[in-house]
Each structure stands twice: as C-alpha cells, then as structure tokens.
Design goal:
Length: 132
Amino acid sequence: MNRLKKEIEEIRAGWSEDQKVIQAFYTGKGVIITGPSGHDLQEIIREAARAGRPFTLTGMNGLWERRNKDLPPMFQTVSRDKLRTQASELLRHGVIVQCAAVGQKKAQWLDVPGGPFAIGRGKFASMAEKSA
C-alpha cells in the first residue's frame, strides 16, 4: 500500500490547481479515485466515518445520494453508476470496507480498515442519519 500511496503522490505533484476533472489512477492493486485538490474517495470515506456520518454504497446514505451535500464539487458531477463502481473497486481491493455499526447485523457502512466503524467503535453524529 505504501508504494501505491507514493505513486499517487507523484501523480498529484504534477497537477495544476485549476484542473476540474476527476482522474482515476489504475494499478495492479486496484483503483484510487483522485481529484486535483488532493481529495480522493478513500479520504472522503475515512473522514465521513470519523465524523460519525459514514456513507453506504447505496440507499439514502449512499455516496451518490449524498453527493451534493457531502462530496467535494469535483465528485458531484460523476454518474451514479461510475461512483458506485469506483467505490466497489475500492471495496474489492480492501482499500475501504463495509462495516456493521454497533448493535447492527448488516455490514453496510463504509470506512477504511482500522477506522472507527471498521473496529466496531464508530458513533453516529445524529440518529437521523443512522438508517440507510
């Protein structure tokens, strides 16, 4: 994973600040969606889980469903299928994981390995966001 992170940082170093498109970086280990302002989908998922507002892959707390409220502008124009496919790739390669919240049986909440929901300690910011 460290090699992958280094390769991503090298690619980011060449980006200009005015780039507006999402760039996908493919390696033999998977895909990381990265944008010019330094946001990547893994970071967004990690920060949402830390803040107690984790995403799900689909449903009312899905990445696409919450795109206008909780994703950076560069991700807001991505199609639903593309965003879900990219998140599914991250899941497939273990970059992110689906977790069950405390007291739930269904593993639906997205987090990074070792994150609060991944280790069973995640707490929701508000009960209104809890049901997916």
